[in-house]
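Try this one yourself first.
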């Protein structure tokens, strides 16, 4: 669990710093003294585990328990500064049914948006994939809750990532349809607990965004650009495939929205 907590801190520092140093108070990262990341991960794992075993009439109740728990924790993270910011976005008419949990930190003087996301659905309990990512998202929510932001920020816990990036695809189709050019960046946090390094991936080439984020935190490693890539067209329409495409930043990337994805792992098996 110590490694998890270190990962949360690294991500909070890196993302908050990358959003713009001048926008935040000098006292650094704010944490909630009464919020326990370890307890959150354990509870979310328990609820997801119960959901994976539920059948029939109990299935919808188990699903609701997971969504409502994430919703409550997000609202607690934002506190009195954003009392009505957290919403559940239902989808299911033309897709796998589920709910995204979304919070908007609004700057009335800006029409620009940064999206920070992590999926809360899991196969089984999902401690690494992705209760830890949602815990990091909540830690970022605590850090931003009382800051003056230069633009709007959306904090999104995506549902149904494991069913084919359904929640993030619905979010992009519905929320981004107005003007995707107003979205400055999408941060995605997925599976940050296990592995040799905590990786950052922005593109399959060097980028200014990756340089900026890496300059704020020396505990991150950029994904090797040439490794983990296969030269064939995948289901998303790329002319190549790499395993990190299989997460919620991909629908944003397909709309030409810059992304920064965080994940843990090892590339040693690739030499």
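Now uncover the answer:
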């Amino acid at each position: 669990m110590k490694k998890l907590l270190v990962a949360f801190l690294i991500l909070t520092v890196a993302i908050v710093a990358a959003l713009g140093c001048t926008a935040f108070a000098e006292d650094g990262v704010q944490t909630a003294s009464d919020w326990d990341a370890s307890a959150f991960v354990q509870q979310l794992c328990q609820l997801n585990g119960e959901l994976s075993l539920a059948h029939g009439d109990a299935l919808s109740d188990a699903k609701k328990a997971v969504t409502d728990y994430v919703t409550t924790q997000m609202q607690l993270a934002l506190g009195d500064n954003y009392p009505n910011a957290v919403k559940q976005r239902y989808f299911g008419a033309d897709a796998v049914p589920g709910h995204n949990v979304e919070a908007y930190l609004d700057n009335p003087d800006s029409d620009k948006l940064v999206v920070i996301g992590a999926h809360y659905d899991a196969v089984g309990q999902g401690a690494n994939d992705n209760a830890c990512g949602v815990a990091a998202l909540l830690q970022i929510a605590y850090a931003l809750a009382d800051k003056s932001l230069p633009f709007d920020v959306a904090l999104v816990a995506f549902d149904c990532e494991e069913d084919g990036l359904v929640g993030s695809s619905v979010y992009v189709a519905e929320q981004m349809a107005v003007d995707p050019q107003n979205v400055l960046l999408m941060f995605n946090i997925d599976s940050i607990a296990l592995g040799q390094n905590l990786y950052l991936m922005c593109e399959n080439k060097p980028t200014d965004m990756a340089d900026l984020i890496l300059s704020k935190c020396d505990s991150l490693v950029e994904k090797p650009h040439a490794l983990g890539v296969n030269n064939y067209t995948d289901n998303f329409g790329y002319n190549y495939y790499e395993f990190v495409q299989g997460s919620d930043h991909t629908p944003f990337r397909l709309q030409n929205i810059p992304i920064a994805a965080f994940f843990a792992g090892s590339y040693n098996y690739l030499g």
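Discussion: The first helix runs from residue 2 to 18. Strands lie at 86-91, 98-105, 113-119, 152-158, 183-189, 197-201, 220-222, 229-230, 241-242, 259-265.
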